[in-house]
Design goal:
The complex is a heterodimer of chains A (199) and B (186).
Chain A (H helix, E strand, L loop, with lengths): L3 H7 L5 E3 L1 H29 L14 E3 H15 L3 H14 L1 H5 L7 H6 L1 H6 L6 E8 L4 E7 L5 H18 L5 E7 L8 E7 L1
Helix pairs in contact in A: 2-3, 2-4, 4-8
Chain B lengths: L10 H20 L3 E5 L5 E4 L1 H7 L3 H4 L11 H14 L1 E10 L5 E12 L5 E10 L1 H54 L1
Antiparallel strand pairs in B: 1-2, 1-5, 3-4, 4-5
The chains are: A alpha+beta (199), B alpha+beta (186).
Amino acid sequence: MLNKDIIKEISKIKGETRGAVFRTDVKYILDKKGENGLNQLKENLKDIIDNDFYSEKIVSTGWYPLWWRILSLLVIKETFNWGEEEIFDMGARAPKHSFIVKTILRYFISIEKTFEESGKYWEKHYSVGKLEAPRIDIENKQLVLHLLDFKAHPILCIYFKGYFKSITGLVVKAEKIFIEETKCMFEDNPYHEFVINWE
Amino acid sequence: MIGNKNKFVPKEIEDDLRNLERYIEELSVFLPLSVYTVNPSNIIVDTNKAAIDLTGYDEDFIIGKEIVILFKDKKTTEECINQVLEKDLIKNQEMVLIAYDKKEIPVNISISVRKDRKNNVIGYFWAMSDISESKRFQESLEKEVEERTKELREKLEELERFQKIAVGRELKMIELKKEVERLKKS
């Protein structure tokens, strides 16, 4: 349950993210819960914070506190009593609706290009952290991603799993794509590691 | 007040970006032509409202799928893809789209190559328009022409038959007159 102490702790998280994340949240909520769901979410958010993340004034290309992004996911999770599955799905759908992703479609021309440039791609979305692809093995249909210097909140680990899976689907022709977080900074690892396989 | 002040971008540029984003979104929603953005692996990476309305496939479903799944004739689709690589542009190719509800829709396709500043291919735009109405109109015109042609042919045959009879009769009359003359003389 979100309370003032939790929110106070979250507000200490440094870094910024693009407004596009809130726009994709809105799209997801509208699809799943309709206008009533979005209004319910906004009401709950109003009880917690003075800012409306889901307002039309939020600009996709603008920069907003990273902790807002985390709070958005937590409020959504609590409002609709959602679990990991839904947060994963939110992450998976986000690239399909993100204005930022549309501005960088030139990267999505091949798996090599997409993930070799993953550092640049990450910088367009987040002001903290670093994304690397230490392994791109087309023959064995495996990709490994490392997210460094990004210890924000565990909810983002779930969200990013969905997100990276979806990004992979934009450049790989595959019947199925699997993703696993094999290392996590919240489990005392030096970075987050995501292993993606496909068939 | 919403949002921190943008630390990275001057306000003017932030306003310009906001306006540009709004412009692109409004244009995408307004554009009556269905458009897909496809990457060099022929995977759909973006779509617009008109395409969603035409095909019934929403963004969540279609983004990440290969463009070939939209069309009935996979071979022709692949041929178009090969052609556009050579020519950079294909216009007015007729194909049959398979919509989400399995309905077959005749469409007119145009494909254009997208390139980066170094002239490398980074994908394609596929634009399509529904030509069902014009196809139906064309078919009804062809049917009408066929029916009229058939009607004319039948009338012509009737006239020919009548002419045969009339001419035959005329010749018979001439023969009879000659016979009468001959009989009168004898």
